[in-house]
Amino acid sequence: MIEIRDLEKLYIMGEETVAALAGVTLTVERGELAAVIGPSGSGKSSLMNILGGLDRPSNGSYHFDGEDVGDMADDALADFRSRRIGFVFQSFQLLPRLTALQNVELPMVYAGIEPRERRERAVAMLQKVGLGERMTHRPTQLSGGQQQRVAIARALANAPDLLLADEPTGALDTNTSKEVLALFHELNAEGLTVVIVTHDLEVAAEARRRISFRDGKVVEDDHGGSRRGKS
Amino acid sequence: MSVRRIDLVGFATGAIIAHPMRSALTSLGVVIGVAAVVMMTSIGLGAQKQVTSAIGGLGSNLLIVSPGASRGPGGGFVSQGAGTNLTLTEEDAKALGTLESVVAVAPSVRGGAQLTAEGANWNTRIEGVTPDYLVARDLTIASGRMIDEAEARQGRKVAVIGQTVATSLFGDSDPLGKRIRVGTVPFEVIGVLASKGQSGFGQDQDDIVLGPLEAVRSRVVGKRVKGDNVQTIYVKAADADSLDRVQEDATNLLRERHRIRQGADDDFNVQNLASITEALQSSIKTFTGLLAAVAAVSLLVGGVGIMNIMLVAVTERTREIGLRMAVGARRTDVLFQFALEAVVLSVVGGAIGLVLGIGGAMLMAKLGNWPTAIAGWSVPLSLGFSMLVGLVFGAYPSWRAARLDPIEALRRE
């Protein structure tokens, strides 16, 4: 599903050129659950931004189901994010003014879905992540774990092909982390492709595939790994 | 596959409602600006209407011929020192009556008068006139009759009085046939004029006594007017189109009669009410435009206020903008959302300002006795203008929002 080849992301800092990604070649198949690990500054966030269509590569190619994402214009990229990608962030990124339901509806608004259908799907998503009772609460009235569940429901709203999670458990305590992680495995078991960026080795240990980054390059791509979790 | 426009309106209004106090203060500049523009134009329009009705009240298609030098085109409505050197006579009036397209010529003299009747006292104006005066001045008789030609020439002491004089001297009782004294001279009331109300200049047009030209000239006005001299000749033209020609003909005729050599100044003054109205109208228009322009400046200041708050909002909501982009918002969606926010703020402000402006104008008309008239076009104009202000001053903040890099924006604390 994801095919990246010789991917580079370069930043010009003063007179120096820094390579956040220095030639990454990688494929991710549909239905995989992959953890991208590495120390900070290793390029995993840059990879994540390009995979999600928030950023463009400096060099190399990125194809998603055969579509050349690397060369897309702004509007096409926005539509790509809307249709294909669900984002989960470390800091949840819920809009504080909106209720859980409205937050989940947001991606569907930009996809042009009618209000009634939006509402139905948002309700279904929140029930799916176990927040059926708290749909009209605002983010400040929810615990961290609950907020992250709302964010996951939001990421699922437009039925994406790929769920991208950037340190999804970074702001959560151990128990809540486990619950959220279990949710990712559950979604993966239903067929959703999931890529989790993390430096938490425990999180990584649960993934079927671990891709290790260092200095903008893949240093290890472990397809076997110790299999735990529900899959 | 793209966002419904109505949802962007929803986002914009949602953000406005989320900060009611801030939004109200942001709109206030536009509220004040629009209210000021609406009020200023209503005052100007009111003044224009008043001038029209004031001059129209003197009579339609009317030329006023008075003695003294002409004071330039259009101006000089206020005659200075007229009557000190009387050059007009009844013969002049008769001659003017022979001109083409002239329907009535009314020579007149006037003076102040202390009236007494049945113990009551009243100070008013008295005018010595001929029967044509009614036609020239567009007056009608409410009861009784007008002075006839014979009475006018022979100096019979009869009078037609205005409504104000009638009620002041006689109260509810019928004044017809009663005697009034003008100074010491007794007159018999033979008619009462129909009411014309307040003139545009604030003068009570019903506070007047009309007497026969000869009698008023010799017995009331006295020494100032001798022989068959008159102070004013009203000349009524058949219609508005012939007014200019009649004015020219009258001037030529009088120059000839007064034997004024070529190149010498007129010793009389023919004023065309239509051209006076026009001149006054245009000066009021200029003045109104000036006032409205000053008021429009405050509208611009209101626009700057909107821009200021919108820039603050974009900074505050950087993360929100990044998130919206991450979940699929196009740059144009963000642009429209913020532009709509600015436009809604200013149009709502404009609508409130419009209501306040109209209310203020009505209040001025009522309490201040200041004439105002609200133009129908001020509604679409002020709403359209406030929309434009929102668009212009919302453009830059919206553009800033749309240009944000989603990655940077999401990272912002």
TrEMBL record, chain A:
Keywords (A to Z) from UniProt: ATP-binding, Nucleotide-binding, Transport
GO molecular function: ATP binding
Residues in ABC transporter domain copies: 2-231
SUPFAM superfamilies, per database record: P-loop containing nucleoside triphosphate hydrolases (SSF52540)
Membrane spanning stretches: none
PROSITE patterns xrefs: ABC_TRANSPORTER_1, ABC_TRANSPORTER_2
Lyase found in the keyword field: no
PANTHER family (UniProt xref): ABC TRANSPORTER ABCH.1, IMPORT ATP-BINDING PROTEIN
Full protein name: ABC transport system ATP-binding protein
UniProtKB/TrEMBL annotation, chain B:
Cited InterPro entries: ABC3_permease_C, MacB_PCD, Macrolide_Exporter_MacB
Principal subcellular localization: membrane
Protein name: ABC transport system permease protein
Start and end residues of each ABC3 transporter permease C-terminal domain: 293-406
Membrane topology: Multi-pass membrane protein
Keyword Transmembrane helix annotated: yes
Record-annotated MacB-like periplasmic core domain positions: 23-252
Organism (species): Caulobacter ginsengisoli
Membrane spanning residue stretches: 24-45, 290-314, 335-362, 374-396
Top-level taxonomy: Bacteria, Pseudomonadati, Pseudomonadota, Alphaproteobacteria, Caulobacterales
